Amino acid sequence: MMEDLEAGITRWPAELEKAYVEAGYWENRSLGEQIFAVADQFPDRIAVIDPDTGLELTFAQLCQRADAAAARLLALGFQPGDRAIVALPNTASFVILLLGMLRASVLPVLALPSHRHFELKTLAIASGARAYIASDVVRGCDHRDLGKRLQEEAPSLEMIIIEGEPLAGQIDLMDLLAPPKPAEIEPLRKRFDALDPPASQPALFLLSGGTTGVPKLIVRTHNDYVYNVKASLAVNEFLETDVFLAVMPVSHNFPLACPGVLGALLVGAKTVITASPNPVKVFPIIAKYGVTHTALVPAVAQSWIDYQHLNHTKDLITLETLQVGGSRMPDSLAIKVNGVLGAHLQQVFGMAEGLVNMTRLTDPEVVINTTQGRPISPADEVRVVDENYKDVAPGAEGEILTRGPYTPRGYFAAPEANAKSFHDGWYGSGDVVHRRPDGNLVVHGRNKDIINRSGEKISAEEVESFIYYIEGVSRAAVVAMHHPILHEDVCLVVELTGRQELTVSEVTDHLDAFGVARFKHPAKIIVVDHIPMTKIDKIDKKSLRDFVAKQLS
Ligand code: OOB
Fold first, then answer.
1. Residue ID of nearest Cα to ligand 1 atom 20
2. Is there an atom of ligand 1 within 6 Å of 377 CB?
3. Is the distance from the beta carbon of residue 431 to the nearest atom of ligand 1 less than 6 Å?
4. What SS3 class is residue 47?
5. 2-275 and 451-552: same fold?
6. What residue's CA is closest to ligand 1, atom 19?
7. Interior CA angle at 44 toward 39 and 47, to 5°?
8. What is the DSSP string of 258-279?
9. What is the CATH number of domain 451-552?
10. What is the DSSP letter of 337?
11. Cβ–Cβ under 8 Å, residues 480 and 488
12. Tell me: the pLDDT tens digits for 147-206?
């Protein structure tokens, strides 16, 4: 229900909300209503293509299916404001379901298919989700069994909804997403037009890539998220004649809303959605559907550049703009994008918590290749501060603080995390940057204890907490190590008592037993006599990172 949600949401100050509306940043129109209005203009245009299943939907068909899905969700007992965890891979089903949930005001908690029991259970408890929605088997993980196990521990999870072959007692996602009968179309449309939620209400939950042991939920309201998408659309110069390829996991803010899938829907353009970013698979898809825009993490951009460099394919002729973000793109890689892929590069430095920076397509090459861009909205405020939250001298390095019309003022129902990450309404992401005189930001690193493994954020503290259960581990520290493709990977440094060694496979088995997502598992273990400590008796992560770098060089 909406009422019980409200208590967990930190709103913008009332006078600012008013100002955002007056300035036109907040339109007071829901995301679903706006997509439906676009669909009414271009009902017969293709909205979504899923080359993996062959499904193609026009805007009219997408909206009809979304309304039918909304009706079926309510028939299952969902009420507006209820939450459901969505951990689907990139398929057309995701898009239909998302729009259906928006129409029914059932709030998606956007998780990843790579999340496992530990992450999902924590999310289910934090969100009070009533359903878990996933594909039956993804990369060897059976989400039907996982769903059953989750239900034992998260009492709110009444329903498991499965794409593929659900177990007895589970719901078939295909039944939920099937097209309505022709006679149902109009009545459904009327019914959900009448249920259109106020735009101040939550539209969905994103996950934070934050540092604490508990994943944090970010509520994005219709007003702020629509603006996130529209401001991104303008800076990305994405038009209705363009074709967006969604190839990074669409539960992430970047391919979903910067401008991403939602951007394409809001301008009446085509989205091609597919699961594998492997150039062998995806290049022919780009050629076949005339993809013009896509969003990648640097590691995938690197793999595309390497492949194209070797194969000189003609597949990328239509590709105009390549957005790259999620982790720091090395300048040496940025320089190659245009020459090898023939596309304009746009660097994107964003966060699920709000603020998005982009280089502009008309910026000088040196800006595009060596900076992470500047805020997409004139109403974004950015400060660069020292450890006492004092502004540093212009151009000096410091931590970024931000606030603005699409940067929420707190995590969902997390007062402790909020006290750490929000300062007088300013969100501190922990990224260390400097601001150039032209306003563009350069990301130097971060003052937060995470590993950024090819765009997936891993909390060191979270992984460490599991390692301490291993017998003989007296101290454990998880730090980033360099990886040639992923840029960073997880390295575990341990002090042992009563044993000499600890293997990667033992740690993997241990973390599997706890249901920790595989992408968080250490790829390397270093046993030491003493883990370096700071003066205040905390693990000295900085010198440990240097130590690991030396050991592995
Ligand atoms: C995006 O969102 P999240 O929430 O997964 O991660 C945010 C964090 C940032 O605080 C920063 O540490 C890192 O990811 N990051 C970058 C970066 N883009 C994100 N670090 C260096 N250079 C970049 N270009 O990752 C995200 C959300 C929206 C758009 C793009 C990325």
1. 327
2. no
3. yes
4. strand
5. no
6. 326
7. 60
8. SSHHHHHHHHT-EEEE-S---H
9. 3.30.300.30
10. I
11. yes
12. 999 999 999 999 999 999 999 999 999 999 999 999 999 999 999 999 999 999 999 999
